[in-house]
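Bumping with the actual sequence this time:
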Amino acid sequence: MTDSITISAEPLDGTRYRFLVSEPVHAIGPGAYRFVSQADAAGVPVAEAVLGVPGIVEVVLSDRGVEVEKNPSFEWCDLEEQVQYAIGTAIAGMNAPAPRESQAMDDDMMYDVVAEVFRREINPSVASHGGAVELIDVQDATVVLRMQGGCQGCGMANVTLRQGIEGSLKRALPSLKGIQDVTDHSAGSNPYFASQSK
């Protein structure tokens, strides 16, 4: 997430919060858009990321920001920072430069590009949460990685993986087929966001 994105939160009632964001939260068009599932949110990065937070059941995107509804069994004190992180990560990905891949690349060439994206973008971002991401290999245009530190066992690891890491890599390498996380998240001893199991 970039430091230039500011997000403030205000409660609306016991289950709803509004997050006001300094950057546009979608490029769909004017008006408000409601999402209640990952299928609804497909292709809308902020909605996808926020719905990836355990306990979030609805997202409404508008010019005013992001309105979020939680499952009543979850507490805002556990969710607020996770939602802000998801919004910021998604917006940072939306604002990243367009890809410049112009030649066919083999796995070795892709490895070099991925290593540079990890060094320049991904690891500095996750380091702010006590994490790191290790590049293991690139096999058949698929990046194999392991999350460490605060990322290992983190309740937001999937959001970081899909919205942050995969998004950044696909912008740099449109021919990338995907990513494979080989992390044993159950062995994480100091996750940045604890997993919610309610």
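The tokens above came from a reply further down the thread. The longest helix spans residues 107-127.
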